[in-house]
Design a protein that fits this description.
mainly alpha, 4 helices, elongated
């Protein structure tokens, strides 16, 4: 274990980068969801909400990197239990946040499903009762 110090530094950097990307994507999705669901409230406190999201994403990524760095300190006990727990939490956290957000919104679990018939987009109907896509200039007009 000649290069353990360099290795643990690189692995900790990768953990920080992974935390920033995964948690950042989950936070971006939640911010987009908040801008759609609570537009007035989101617009009023937009700077604060984005600031808190950046702070939370940065702190969780830094904590994950630091704890990964600490977990790799003893070459006789690799992989360390702390490293395994931190890696598991850092990988599951964005999935848990996204899953909870989807459940709160009512979009179901992780795997998307087809929309029920009541939520499907209805095509506009002309006063004559035909669909507007079947007008006189449509290729289907004479059929």
């Amino acid at each position: 274990m000649l290069h353990l110090d360099a290795f643990r530094l690189v692995i900790a950097g990768c953990a920080v980068l992974s935390g920033l990307v995964l948690n950042g994507l989950a936070a971006w999705w939640l911010l987009r969801l908040a801008s759609i669901r609570a537009a007035a409230l989101y617009l009023e406190y937009r700077v604060w909400v984005i600031g808190v999201a950046v702070l939370v994403v940065g702190l969780t990524a830094a904590a994950g990197g630091y704890l990964t760095y600490l977990g790799l300190r003893d070459p006789r006990h690799l992989p360390d239990a702390l490293s395994m727990v931190v890696a598991s939490v850092m990988l599951l956290l964005p999935f848990a946040v996204t899953f909870a957000g989807r459940r709160i919104v009512g979009r179901g679990g992780i795997i998307p499903f087809s929309e029920p018939a009541s939520r499907q987009v209805q095509r506009p109907i002309s006063p004559s009762g035909r669909s507007l896509r079947e007008g006189p200039t449509s290729p289907q007009a004479g059929k």
